[in-house]
Amino acid sequence: MVTAYVLVKANTGEADRLLDAIAAIDGVVDAHIVAGDVDVIAKLDVDSPTDVKDIAADEIQHTDGVEDTETYISM
Amino acid sequence: MHILIVGAGRVGLRTARITHNEGHEVTVVENDYDKAERAQNEGFAVVEGDGSDEDTLERAGVDEVDALGALTGDLNTNFVACMVGKHHGCRTVMRIDEDYRENIYRKYAEEVDEIVYPERLGAIGAKNALLGGNVTAIADLAENLQIVQFAVTEDAPMHGYTLSELELPSRARLLAFGKKDGALGLPLPDDTLEVGDRIAVLAEFDALDDVRQILVGEATAATEVA
């Protein structure tokens, strides 16, 4: 199993919708709206590093209202 | 009131100055030595340290102050300072760095009573300066409610009348009146509307056009939206 954290910078004030959309993605086990330079942090629990890339780069990145993401894989 | 300002940069120090000028007691927290010294030289009580550190805020009197303005350029510092401030019973004001975040902090940050986005106010000022003219947006109170200042022109239907004769649309209120080159003051019924005089009006967005036609007279000028 691979655990990773995805930091999401939004470009929308609709944080609720964004949080729900990200939390609904398969592999996302937890997501929170946070204060600071990013707006949402999502925790992923998946089988492989490839899954991390797929979820972060494709699904989260392409969610409406997401400006940018930054991914950290847990060691 | 006793006000605690976190951050003595371009926003914090100016806020400290105008708050102090209105007779309030101001304490400033700043972690940069040069900025702290500059604030000190201006006569402010300055506590040097990290504004997101509770001990620093306690040294700065967060227990005694009425309100805390978290006005650094760092969102995390600002948010944590508000959390600490709220915990100590202050009214809290947080500076944000992007306008879309206003909704997020309004909704989720219970620790934050008010949000300021300085660039927005700067943009209103810049836009007014660029457009010039007889209509100046002063403040947005709500999405649909603005305070706007109008300058009376030669063509204004109300030119030459007194304020007691002025009839504004029902969704607009007269707030202040100033003679040309004079300061704005409370409107008096006998004040006469002459060219260049300024009138501040609180109005719903939809009523602004009617107010402008009464006071300025042009039919086509765009309404001001901040």
Short description:
The complex is a heterodimer of chains A (75) and B (226). Chain A has two helices and four strands, in the order E-H-E-E-H-E.
Provide an overview of this structure.
The complex is a heterodimer of chains A (75) and B (226). Chain A is α+β, with helices and mostly antiparallel strands and 75 residues long. Chain A has helices at residues 15-23, 49-60; strands spanning 2-10, 28-33, 40-46, 66-73. Helix content of chain A is 28%, strand content 40%. Chain A has a four-stranded antiparallel sheet with strand order 2-3-1-4, with helices on one face. Chain B is an alpha/beta fold. Chain B has helices at residues 12-21, 33-41, 54-59, 75-87, 101-108, 118-131, 208-215; strands spanning 2-6, 25-30, 45-48, 67-70, 91-95, 114-116, 135-142, 145-151, 172-178, 198-204. Chain B is elongated, with a radius of gyration of 21 Å. The chains are: A alpha+beta (75), B alpha/beta (226).
Beta-strand share of residues of chain B: 15-25%
> Helix fraction of chain B?
25-40%
Secondary-structure element string of chain A: EHEEHE
Percent helix of chain A, as a range, is 25-40%
Low-confidence stretches of chain B: 219-226
Radius of gyration of chain B: 21 Å
- Average pLDDT of chain A, rounded to a whole number, is 93
- Measured distance between first and last alpha carbons of chain A: 11 Å
* Portion in strands of chain A: 35-45%
Quaternary class: heterodimer
Biggest sheet record of chain B: 6 strands, parallel
